Amino acid sequence: MRRLAGKLLKRAAAPARRGWLVPTVCALVLLGLPYPLRVIPAAPPETVPGQVRIATWNVCGVRQWHCESTGTRTEKIQALKRLAAGDGARVVMLQEVCAGDLAVAREEMGKGWHSTFLPYAIQDAEGRRTAVRCADVRQGTAGLGLLAFSPLTKVSTVPTRQSAVGLHRGIVCATAADLAVRVCNAHLSLPEGDPAQVGREFRDDQLKSLAGAANGRTVFGGDLNSAPPSNGTEDSWIWPHTTYRTYRECDQESASSRHGRPTHTSGHKVDYLFTALPRTRCSVRDTGASDHRALIMQVSSRG
User: Fold this and answer.
1) N vs C: which end of the chain shows fewer Cβ within 10 Å?
2) What domains lie within the chain, and their CATH numbers?
3) How do strand 51-58 and strand 152-157 relate by DSSP bridges?
4) Least confident residue range of 35-49, 191-205, 278-292
5) CA-closest candidate to residue 191, choices 181, 202, 180, 177
6) DSSP summary character for residue 149
C-alpha cells in the first residue's frame, strides 16, 4: 500500500517533498477581515440548531503539481463557495489552496467569514526555505487554509517532523469561537519521498502530532496522504491508537470499522475528519474542480 499511495499521489511529488526534525515554525498569514457581500449571501451559522458542518478539501490549486486539468481558478473559488452555500459547511479546511483564491472566496462570501493561511515551504540542503508560488501572480503562495463563519482565535501551528530537504506542508489549528469548536487542518508528507533519506517515514510522527493537538471539542484531519488502517494494509502501523478509538472518523460506521468512501479520483480514501463530538452526518462531495472530493461532517456542537 505504501508504493500504491505514492503512485496514486504522484502529482504532489513536485520538486523535493519531505523533511527531518524541523519544527513547523512558519509564519501564519492572517488574511484580514471579511469584506461586504459581492456574490452570495452568507447562510446562517447553523444548518440545524446545535449542529455544525465542517469540511476538508484539497483544492489542487497548484497547477504545476499536475493540477492543470482540474478546473480553473474561478471554478475552484466557486466550488469553495458552494461548500458553504450549498452544503452548509461553516468551517472548511483547505489544502493546496492559493492565498489569493482564499482571499477572494472569503470576500465574496460576505460578512461573518474569516480565514487564516499557512504557506508551504521548500527547504534545500543548506536549510534555505522558499515559498511555493501559484501559477497566476494574483494567486500568491500555496499552502493550508482555514475558512470559517466565525472569528478564528488561538491560531497556531503544530510542530512535527519534516524532511531535511523538500516540501514542508504542516498542521494549523484554530478555534471557531462562535461555533464552539476547534479545528486542526493537516497535509501530511508523501511516503518514500525524502531524497536525503530514502525510505524514511514521517506520517506516523505527523499523525501522532495531529492527534495529540486535539481535545474533546476538536475536529481534526485534512489530506493525510494515507490509506485507512484496514486489515492487511501495509501502512496500518502509522496510525495512532487514538484516531479510531478515542476519536471517530467522519465515515466510520462502527467502533471496529476502519474503512471509508473514496475521496480521491484514484478510488482511494486519503482525506479524513476525526472528532470526539457526536457525529450526525457524513457526506462526500465531488466539487468538479479538483482530483480530491470534499469530505463534510456534521457534528453536535453541544456534545
Assistant:
1) C
2) 2-300 (3.60.10.10)
3) unpaired
4) 35-49
5) 202
6) S
